[in-house]
Specification:
The structure is a homodimer of 392-residue chains. In chain A, 48% of the residues lie in helices and 12% in strands. In chain A, helix 1 packs across helix 3, helix 10 crosses helix 11 and helix 11 packs across helix 15. Chain A is globular, with a radius of gyration of 20 Å. At the A-B interface, strand 1, helix 8 and helix 9 of A face strand 1, helix 8 and helix 9 of B.
Chain lengths: 392, 392
């Protein structure tokens, strides 16, 4: 196990109706004027935004609204948010939505207190040292951004999708009401489940030895997702399944099960070009990407893939041919993702074979990239092209 | 799953040699004059205390020393610590040791800022609202107190052993260097492993339905302990096994795998009378107590005991006789604890049959107790006597 530091000081409020206490938590964590940042119309139509506004009114906390966050959130809206916050002397960002809205909120929060271009953080030119406090009301279990120090933004010029990390970005509080996820369309629910599973695999695929405790935690969270995923697809109103998935989504990404081990993130990096290019759901892109990446890299450590196949997917261990077990595990993952309605091919994402070289180039060389992906296995442009081709 | 709040803002610094940075973290978390609280002579003899003093000297942070914490820490030393802190204007407690030292430090931290008798917190007469900040340098993986809001103290008058909880007690920072545990005697290492497993079982035994995600996390941590425990008993210098156990010990008790579910804690309550009465190691007491308690209560939910037997201990599921599987799991736990050198009988703890009635009485009726234990099953005095008898 490697050395590490771990600090996850987010206050979680979990359960039915808890979003009605938003104002109380804004106050407790020092917000005196708030930017409410949100996405499309669903939180307006459902009345969620009104309930949150009411709870802020009750605490006499003024707010400014900024909606319009898209999936794969864009830098344009971040610049706008930064401008509003400075002009209005906002001192807390309240994200009402899923990972996209929370990530956009984090970018605004860091950008407000930075003299340069906030994009510097996303292309590695500057480190995030401070940010306005962020609070969240989560409406989709997926990205884990409600408990993580991470944010992913897409820059319109060139459609570069990049991530930034900073401890200052961890939300001060996050309100998790599983009921709020019950109205999600099945495709979004399934994409969220896929993203959670991807966050677990990205941590599981490690070159660090002797990491049994985090291996076992990750495997446990995977098994919980495999149990709860189909239940919630079958019955979107299954509160308990929603609740289990929601906590798993947070635990999968707050990094308590990823500490002390080198992690992968190649599936995420390779997928990012797909969702940036074709604007598909990140989770849908991951469903297509993961099996291809795993098949391409499994020979680097067959034992690891056999272990997850056996322990998590219940594949019989073939002791003389562990690669068969490893492969069976990847097929089991693929079947599972298909069973919850996720795509499995390039075409289903609207992706085109002729874009492969360009995407691979942006993926490994674009916008300050070093010319390769590191992680479980080092991948160059040709590798990434090969992987995209496997998805066709 | 039940509603809950979860807030675990401890800063963890994990790895070799990290205790030499203690001064830096004291400073970062605002300590300007520190009480260094510790136990016996081992941290003096090993040079650990000197290294910590040096790192405080380097940061020019003055300190006062208070050693002498015993296993099953006593109220007498807490009163002394409170007096010193007030007289010397101490603003941070630095615990150097295991659960006993950390728990004693937490009691002092809460007591300093309280006008009444600190024991009020431990007999439920007052709630902990504030405390001096506590930092820890952990020297034994066991109690999980380095990441928990809990503290257990024994009052000399009557030898009442009682716990208190308060979010203000969560350490501000905890330094976890697995190397520091390599010099522990095997008995203490094994007692620590047992305590960690007990913290997992106490959360696992629940009457709350639909808790798959936390079930799976708990099971994963248990399996990691079963894997690493024997390795560290075989080779005390196995750093990686020590490291896995140390992180498991924290995760087992910071409650991220216990949220949203009713918990048990009857094994702890019944054990506390043993360690209070005979001054045995808490973990050793738990090794004798757990199998007895589990056999006594398993018929309340055979499925739960069969599940842990099958998933964690690898017992074949007997579908027509699940109670056989359940029992096999309890026997597997008992064999495991014996294999790492833990006692399995009352006599090995130095416990006496003639004390049973008195202990059961104190356990359920003593010092403000309601006359029964609640948790997975409600237990009255007769039940507790029956359980003690099963240990003979």
């Amino acid at each position: 196990m490697q050395n590490f530091t771990f600090y996850a000081p987010t206050y979680f409020v979990f359960g039915q109706g808890k979003e009605n206490q938003t104002g109380r938590y804004v106050k407790r964590f020092g917000g005196t004027k708030v930017l409410i940042h949100y996405g499309g119309g669903s939180c307006v139509r459902s009345g969620l935004l009104d309930r949150i506004k009411e709870s802020l009114d009750y605490e006499e906390i003024p707010y400014v609204l900024l909606g319009g966050v898209q999936p794969n959130p864009r830098s344009g809206l971040v610049y706008k948010g930064i401008e509003i916050c400075r002009k209005e002397n906002i001192d807390m960002i309240l994200a009402v939505g899923g990972g996209s809205t929370i990530d956009s909120s984090k970018a605004i929060a860091a950008g407000v207190l930075y003299d340069g271009d906030f994009w510097d953080f996303y292309e590695g030119k500057a480190r995030i040292k401070k940010a306005l406090p962020v609070g969240t009301v989560l409406t989709i279990a997926a990205a884990g951004s409600e408990g993580s120090p991470d944010s992913v933004i897409t820059k319109e010029e060139g459609m570069f999708k990049r991530g930034a990390t900073g401890e200052a970005l961890r939300p001060r509080f996050s309100i998790l009401n599983p009921e709020l996820t019950q109205t999600l369309p099945p495709h979004q629910t399934a994409a969220g489940i896929t993203d959670i599973i991807a966050h677990l695999y990205e941590r599981y695929l490690t070159t660090t030895e002797e990491v049994e405790v985090t291996d076992r935690m990750i495997e446990g969270l995977m098994m919980a997702m495999i149990h709860e995923g189909p239940r919630v697809i079958e019955d979107p109103n299954n509160y308990d399944a929603r609740a289990n998935i929601m906590w798993a989504g947070m635990m999968a990404h707050n990094n308590s099960c990823g500490v002390g081990r080198r992690q992968d993130w190649n599936s995420h990096n390779i997928e990012h070009e797909l969702s940036a290019q074709y604007d598909c759901a990140h989770g849908a892109g991951l469903a297509v990407t993961m099996p291809a990446v795993f098949k391409y890299v499994m020979h680097n450590d067959v034992t690891r893939f056999a272990q997850v196949a056996n322990r998590v997917w219940g594949c019989k261990m073939d002791f003389y041919h562990p690669e068969r077990t490893a492969l069976a595990g990847i097929e089991a993952l693929k079947s599972f993702l298909k069973s919850i309605g996720m795509p499995t091919t390039f075409a289903e994402l609207g992706a085109k074979e002729e874009d492969i070289e360009k995407m691979a180039d942006v993926c490994v060389n674009g916008d300050g990239r070093p010319g390769y992906l590191s992680g479980f296995v080092k991948l160059d442009k040709q590798d990434v092209m090969n992987i995209y081709r496997m998805m066709i």
